[in-house]
Automatic annotation (TrEMBL):
Organism field: Aegilops tauschii subsp. strangulata
Higher taxonomy: Eukaryota, Viridiplantae, Streptophyta, Embryophyta, Tracheophyta
An individual GO BP term: methylation
Protein name, UniProt field: Methyltransferase domain-containing protein
Keywords for the protein's UniProt record, in alphabetical order: Methyltransferase, Transferase
InterPro entries membership: Lys/N-term_MeTrsfase_sf, Methyltranfer_dom, SAM-dependent_MTases_sf
Length: 108
């Protein structure tokens, strides 16, 4: 295992380098100061988009991106399902009372 410290908004990896990318709560950090969750501020939108563009770029065709988060689908799907991304989006909900979400996005 190689540990690399990198900026999640500017991943230093070649295109199509990975079969799997996993993030747990990383995207949540980008939403901390987002303002209205239905209409996040432009900085949040730009940063989330940069993060997802980087992940999409480094995934091989057929590769999967797994996101484990407290972000509900009605807030996250708009980002995951943006037209520039060629991945399918599925999710499952876990927990009793306080839910978290497990998203699986597979690059076509």
């Amino acid at each position: 295992v190689d540990v690399v410290v990198a900026d999640m908004l500017d991943l230093p990896f070649e295109s199509e380098s990975f079969d799997l990318v996993i993030e747990k709560g990383t995207m949540d950090v980008l939403f901390v100061d987002s303002g209205d969750p239905w209409n996040p501020n432009p900085t949040t939108v730009d940063n989330v988009t940069k993060m997802l563009e980087g992940i999409h770029k480094v995934l091989k065709p057929g590769g999967k991106f797994v996101s484990i988060t407290f972000g509900q689908p009605h807030f996250r799907r708009r980002f995951f399902e943006a037209p520039e991304f060629t991945w399918s989006v599925e999710w499952n909900t876990f927990g009793d009372g306080f839910h978290y979400f497990f998203y699986i996005l597979q690059k076509v």
